[in-house]
Each structure stands twice: as C-alpha cells, then as structure tokens.
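Standup notes
- HV: blocked on the assembly model, inputs below
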Amino acid sequence: MPSRDPISQPWGSRLPYGQGRQWPARVDHHLAEGLAPEEVDRWVRSATILHSNGDALDIAVKDGRVVGVRGRGKDRVNRGRLGPKDLYGWQANHSPDRLTHPLVRRDGVLTETDWDTALGLVASRSRELLDEQGSTALGFYTSGQLFLEEYYTLAAVGHGAIGTNHMDGNTRLCTATAAASLKESFGCDGQPGSYSDIDHADVIALYGHNMAETQTVLWARVLDRLAGPNPPRLVCVDPRPTPVARKATVHLAPRPGTNVALMNALLHELIRNDRVDHTYVENHTVGYEELVRRTAEYPPERAAEICGVSAPAIRGAAELLGGAERLLSTVLQGFYQANQATAAAVQVNNVHLLRGMLGRPGAGVLQMNGQPTAENTRECGADGDMTGFRNWNNDGHVADLARVWNLDPMRIPHYAPPTHAMQIMRNVEKGSIRFLWVSATNPAVSLPELRRVRALLSQQSLFLVVQDCFMTETAELADVVLPAAIWGEKTGTLTNSDRTVHLSEKAVEAPGEARPDLDIFLDYARRMDFRDADGHPFPQWHDPESAFEAWKRASAGRPCDYSGLTYERLRGASGVQWPCDEERPDGTERLYADGRFWALPEQCESYGRDLVTGAPLEEMEYRAMNPEGRAMLKAVEYVPPHEEPDRDHPFVLITGRTLYHFHTRTKTGRSPELQRAAPEVWVEVSPSDAQEAGLSEGDPVEVSSPRGTIRARTRVSGIRAGVLFVPFHYGYWDTEVSEGDGARDRAANEMTVSDWDPVSKQPLFKTAVARLRPLGEGDGRPAPAPTTTASASLDHRVAATRGTPDTSEETTGGGAP
Amino acid sequence: MRIVAALRELHRSESALADELLRVADRHSEEPEVRHVAEDLAYWSREHAHEITEVMPRYRSDPAGLAHPEPAEEDQPELPGEEGDADLALLADLRRVYRMSAGVALDWDLLGQGAHVVADADLLAATERCRARAERQMRWARGMLKALSPQILAT
C-alpha cells in the first residue's frame, strides 16, 4: 500500500545501519494514479536524470507511455530508493507542449518545417561560415543532461571534424570547479571517492553542499547512518540553515566569498596540532612547506574576522577533521559558485592529502556534480576539456586522439584551452562567433546577467540553433529549433558523481518527429560530409552502441577507462564504476588507493593554473614542480570578492536550487506535484534584516542588484544576517511577459554578476550585492517556499509543505544494524 | 650605494604597473576576467610599492621624496593600429602588462642581488616574495594573450 508522501518526506523512512555494514535496501515505487503494478506492460532499465546522484530505476510502461518508476534494490548507488524528482519528473515526457516538429524562423516567426529543411539550413549556414571565416565562427554550447554517446559524438564533430575550439557545456555553471580542483591536486579529473564511503566514515564534512536537497537519496544514506550505532559526526559549511546544518555537530555559516580564509584556518589548525600523516605527505605529495608557510598566516582569529564566524567554532571543526579516522568530504556549489572557487575546493583536497585520507573505505573526497551526466560531458570532452581527460597542451595526447579519430592532429585545435562558456558568449556578443548550437540547456535563464545574455543571443548577426524538448526561453530566440527526444525515449549511458555507469534504455517512442540528440548530431555530420583520413564518413559510428564502442577505444588507457564495459554487461550488472578494463572487470570503487596519481608530466590532464590569476602553467614549469607525478598541495592566499556590500546594496545575494526543482523547471515545472511544492520565486531574509526593512513573512518585495531587479515574496528564515537567497529556477516560460525587460522580474539571474573563477571559469552566482525595497503589506499568504528544506519558515503558523501518500516503500527485513 | 637608486626605480615601476593594471581594468570593463583579475593584480603592485617605502629609511632615503611615476614609454602605442580597434587594443594592453611586469620581476632579481651582497635578509625575503608575484602577473598576461589572441587574429 502506498504510504509515503515524497513531498513532505523527501528522504523516506529510516533503515538505520552501523559503521561498515551494508546500507539496507528499500525499494520505492510510484505509479500513475489508479494503476496497479500488475497492469504495467513492461519495465525498462534506466537511471535518474534530474540530479547527479545516478539513482538506478526501472521505467514502467503501459500502452506506449511512461506510467511510473521503481528503484532497483540491488544497485550500489541507491539500493532501491528514489527521491521526489525521480518519482514525479517523468510526467514531463508526456506534456502536451513538447516540441514535435522542427521550426525555422521565417519573416521573424518560428514556423513548422521538416527535418530536411531544418538540418539543411543548419548545414548550409555552417558551410558558408567555414568558407567565409573558418572554424572560429562556430560554437557549441551543450548540457549536463545528454548521454555519453551524444557528448562523445558532439566532441568528435566539434573538436575533430569542424576543428573549432569553441565548445562548452552548462557544466561550466555546475561542475567545472570540481574538475578543476581535481586537476590541480591530482593532475587529472576523476572522482577519488565513492558513495559507499558514507558507510564507513566517522566524520563527514560537507562544504557548501546541501546534500539533503541536491542528492536526496545520498542524504537518506547519511540519515540512516545517523540513526544507527556509531553514527558519523557532521561538519557543515553553509550560510543557510540547511537540513544538513541541522544535523551537524559543527555548523559554520561564513560570509559568502570567504571560503579560502576559512579553509586556510582549518589547515592551520591541523598543522599546528600536528594532525598530519607525515609519511603520506612525504611519500605522495609536493608543496607541503609552502602550505605550512601560507596557512601560518591564517590563525582561527584572523579567519573568524574575515568570515564572520567564531574562532572556537573553527577550532571545533578542525578538531573533528583532525580526530577523524575515516574522513569523507563532499563539496558543491557553496564553494564552486563562490569567490575563489577552485582555490577553496583545492584546500579540501589538501585536508585529505595532509591526513592521508584517500583511497580507503570511509576516507575519500567527493568533488560533486550538479547534473546527471556532467561527468560524461567532462570525460567525453564536450565541455572545455579534451576527450578522455587528455591534455590539450600535450602534443602527444592530441596526436593520440587524432589516431583514435583517424584525423590529422592539426585539425584538432590545441593552441589554447577550449573556450569556456562565458568567453563563447563574449565572442558571440562581439560578433566573432556567428553560429551557436545550443543543446539541452537554457542559457537565457541560467547564465548570469540575463539582460545581457538575451541581447547577445538575439543579435541579427548570430545564427542560433536550439535543440531541446520544450519551447524554452532560449528556443524562442532561435533561428532553427530542433525537437529532441529525451530520457526514456532513447538509449545511452550516463555516469554519476561517483563514476557509476548506468545504461538507460529506450522505453517509449518520442512524440511527433522528435529525434534523439545522437541522431541529430550524426545526421548533421553526414550532411556536412565530414571524412576521416581514409575518406570514410566521420564520425565512424551510427547508433548508441557503436558510439559507445568507439568511446571505449578513446578512453582505453586513460583514467576514465570504459574498455571493460559493454551494453550487454550493463544490462546485467546494475551500475559499474570506472575505470573498468580487462584487469578490473568489476570496475573500481576508489581511485588513488595506492597513493599513485595521474600526475606525471606525460600523463596529466593539465599542467595546472595559478590559483589566484588562473594563468596556465607551461610544461616546463610543471616538470620542475612535480617531476615524479605526486599529488600537489597547493597553497593560496585569501582574496576578497570583487563585489562587496555598500550603502546602496547592503546585502550579499546568493542563488541556488530547491529540492523540488531542477534548473529552469523545463521538466519539474511540468510535474504537478513538484510544481505545487515550490510554485513561485521567493527571497529568504534573516529575521533581523526583515525587521529592519519592515518585512514580514509573505510580504512582496523588490530585490535589486546593480544589474537587475526581481519581485518576490519574503520568506523570513534562519539564513545568515546580511545574506539574501533567491532560487534560480524561475524564468518566464510559464508567465506572461510583454516585450522589453521591464516585465522580466522573476529570474534570479537578472541580478547576478558577470564574474567567474579565473581557474575553473565557473560563474560566481554567490557573489553579487543587492538591496531590498518593500512593496507594501502582503495578503496574509506565506511565501511560496517549501518548509521542508533550507527555506523553512521561522513562523510556525506557516502550513507545512505536503503532497499525497502515493509512493510505496518495500523493505525486505534487513533494517537492523 | 646604488641600492637606493634600485629601490627608487622599483617603486616607480611597481607604481606604474599598478596604474597600468587599473587602466587596463577600466578600459576593458566589458571583459570581466581582464577587469577583475587586473584589479586584484594592481593591488599586489601597490603592496610592493608600499613595502619599498618601508625599506627606504633603512638605507637613509626618504620615501616622502618619491615622485609619482612620470609618463614614460608605457604611454606609447604598443601595437600599430590599436587605436580604434578594441580587440587589438586588448592584445596591446596585455602585451604591455607582460613587458612591464617582466621588467619589474627582473628588477626585483637585481635588487635581490644587492640585498645578498649587503646581507640584508629582510630585503632579500621581500625581493623573493615580490619577484614571485611579478612573475605571476607576467604569466597572467601571457596566459590571457594566448587564450584571447587566436580568435582575434583569425577574425
């Protein structure tokens, strides 16, 4: 019998377990109303797509439609559990407003057409520009939500066949700093830790990572440990009163933008109290002396002043980190989207290197992703990296990729790092990129400083192709719109934040003429008549499985080695962690277990960058610093944010997500249960700030930064004083907007700043300043913000967020520790 | 002792570099990375110039007598055609920052030689610290030039 309401119980019921035990299974099911399990025609294997956790599930199909989902109890990632977005998000597939026909702009209006016309136009415009200007005229901006096979194909088409350096993903907004910090510390991308480290850890530190909302099932695993014997203790760094903060032994709520000062103080304490594994440091790292020297400048008292937290709390956190026998750390947007992003994330890696806490059960780092397939964008090289974690600055790596592709190495651009998204947009703005192909992402809502983004995407000189499943705010600006099949309508693989690979199989037909992204990219390549060195059509593959086989050859011998996997294998085993090759047929749970890294100058993915200026190091500089390929302890000073509050704009504005939505709500906004849980934008204000501004719960208010203004209702919450939080999910596709920017007063990114971390190039969504202007008294209704999450109201009269008990949880005993 | 002359010259060139970085930040405010990092790096040069004023009394020289940097070759055009071409002006400005910071780094090296010979350990430490940062300023300009120039040169 369905008994759980996933809206009010996002993490479901507890199955407590003890340290070192296996996490008990709990299989969650949800079917469309009125449907019984025995009425389902078939179950099709897949994994979730609305966050980065990679929960394994089966899709229920009846009469050619998706009708529900069921978690897979044997899978290592979720042991059957599903979160609210997993349980409800599939309904968007059957939304009546899916794009079903290609569209082209005629006399200023998007008009239905056929594939031949639409792709013919895309190919002919590409050819014109290649003749006129060359490959520098073309750019590609993709996603963290396609499948591996699609990214690999896009990388081959863009970097290989066309030879443009302008390719990035919206992963730049979510996971670029994870990749950058791993390259800085370990020489190469690749998640060191594993979700199973939660089963073993005695201390878990979450840095800017509201796991309870971003990865609900992973948080359920932590909650089950907390409810069992020998629970881990938590350290939480977050300016908001997140569910994580409420469970933490030590909660530090620093002033946004000061993470490096805080981390330096924690490292200072570890070193001062000699919580250092000197054998590990001596045998496996470089840079210790410099780290000691640098962090000596940051005693807790100094950091306390910079960060606005108490020195004893910093010492308390350091004691937990220093006393841990099995320390797990996770990092996400509170670090990645804040001032000195990579520098701060690297200091978390430093904690683990100092303490020798890597590569064994419970001792690991998870530099997290935000999106379901962000890992694939990175490893395939569709996001500003080179395919297979190759080093663009190493001619040998480029030659090797050219060999795999059977292309001339000179066709593959390697004169500079692949152009990052913000620079691609700048080139569009300046008119030197005249063709931009956007797939499965919505920059007109998700990039910072939207007034500018809309203007540059609307330029007459730009030929904009948008490939998506709905008429997004970006698609409205396009010259050609290509309707795409989505999850459940196509086959491919996806890899989560802890390197677990799942196969997601086609369950139903796509609506109308919508086609899989892979088919669209390959069709384009054939129309462009790309050829390899032997005159054969390039790419040499033609469907998902042949693309996967080709990718295996590109990844073989690299850190992200898939050569031991096949589709057949993935249909059997549920979830395999790369690297997986002949020697490791069952995959690899943890990287760097032997204290050896992909950091030799000949092997590494990057020679690294200056953590303050972002300047790339050259090969000789890297060789001098790290000739033996050790892990690198990189020290850095605190540099204040570029925008700080003043009299006009007294608040720091941070943006982020809520548990019930994903990105710009293209799918979650079309799932009624999720939409009802968080229907409208709000702004979180601390009680003292609310009082000073004369604001009460639910009051309408105008929030402005030097770049733009929104209107929202006030949620008085336990957020740090001086800080405002606005969720970034709310754009304009489900509002009435008139022409002109005046009416566009809902998207958080109207206010954010065009500034990014010089190392990872990740935009700083958590570093703007803002002011509040009350718009009169409210109508008595509270803010439309969930009460189950970090946005919880302090007013107990506000009704709790709830849905309906429509989900079953099946456990097969085994709940006991 | 010509160390005083070296200190004065470094004070002039660090101050000029700070001014130049701020000018570049202002001139290219539409290029967020150039603007923001140039501002951060200008702060370094200001700190270095300040360090010099603190050293000077030890060498019986009055920092009050330090003049604001004279207009020098830094005001000359860097690349032909940069006027009226914003992209070329960007390359030119970064090229100038590269040259100026390279000169500053070298001068810190020279001053370090002087500090060695007069056995001034504090000054030596300062020269090492400041030279390292000048080289980072230089590498930044080089890195930005390498990243931005292909698109500008090819279009």
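- HV (later): unblocked. Chain A touches chain B through 30 residues (CB under 8 Å). The domain at 651-774 of chain A is CATH 2.40.40.20 (Barwin-like endoglucanases).
- Next: hand off to the docking folks.
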